[in-house]
Amino acid sequence: MFAISGFLTRDEAEEIIRVAAPALHPSLVVRHAAAADADAAATTGETSEGRTSWNARVASTHPAVRAAVQRACYLSNLTPAHAEPAQVVRYLPSQKYDPHCDWFDPAGATFEEKTRRGGQRVVTLLAYLREPTRGGRTTFPKLHLGFDPRVGDAVLWWNVDDDGKEDPRTTHAGEPVEAGEKFALNIWLRARPTRGEGGGGGGEGVGGAGEEEEAYAVEDDAAARAIEAST
């Protein structure tokens, strides 16, 4: 795990917010249900009390977004072809994201669908675009780590261990914003290229996902059990 100071300039951060703002919509989670006959909301995304932010996908054709993706890939020794469409997320006062993992649960009924193109989500980079007046820390409870949101700074981590196995220690949370607003940029990198070398395009989502399905998040009973078992 790496804390990166000055990953973005303030001008880049504000430009990414400007591009994303008109498309913001309530964040969704995809429940990787254990049941093969899970309903549509469970597999394509639904709102959740555990994730109350708003988000928007941003095209990597925009210079500031493209630069951010390229930097994340350089730091991870991967190429932009491994990138999912980047996502901007906004938190207003009281909004949060409860503890979760970014990797896909191999035991989940939708695992094959979610990993059909690109494989597992192996790297996350979270860059702060606007810092709240108070609150909004990013915390890793299993690692006893926390990061204050500072404009331009970023946190990068691998979601899998050296053997490629999903790492429950990457469980993390976005603490509630208490005052002001928080904007952040999510960049997720896959184990394999998701498309051509351009990577991370702003059109169709990874694996043919629709408009809402860029916001994959593990909110899964099986994943929760695995996390608890590791403690």
UniProtKB/TrEMBL annotation:
<dbReference type="GO" id="GO:0031418">
    <property type="term" value="F:L-ascorbic acid binding"/>
</dbReference>
<dbReference type="InterPro" id="IPR005123">
    <property type="entry name" value="Oxoglu/Fe-dep_dioxygenase_dom"/>
</dbReference>
<keyword id="KW-0479">Metal-binding</keyword>
<dbReference type="Pfam" id="PF13640">
    <property type="entry name" value="2OG-FeII_Oxy_3"/>
</dbReference>
<keyword id="KW-0223">Dioxygenase</keyword>
<dbReference type="GO" id="GO:0005789">
    <property type="term" value="C:endoplasmic reticulum membrane"/>
</dbReference>
<keyword id="KW-0408">Iron</keyword>
<feature type="domain" description="Fe2OG dioxygenase">
    <location>
        <begin position="82"/>
        <end position="191"/>
    </location>
</feature>
<dbReference type="InterPro" id="IPR045054">
    <property type="entry name" value="P4HA-like"/>
</dbReference>
<keyword id="KW-0560">Oxidoreductase</keyword>
<dbReference type="InterPro" id="IPR044862">
    <property type="entry name" value="Pro_4_hyd_alph_FE2OG_OXY"/>
</dbReference>
<dbReference type="GO" id="GO:0004656">
    <property type="term" value="F:procollagen-proline 4-dioxygenase activity"/>
</dbReference>
<dbReference type="InterPro" id="IPR006620">
    <property type="entry name" value="Pro_4_hyd_alph"/>
</dbReference>
<protein>
    <submittedName>
        <fullName>Predicted protein</fullName>
    </submittedName>
</protein>
<dbReference type="GO" id="GO:0005506">
    <property type="term" value="F:iron ion binding"/>
</dbReference>
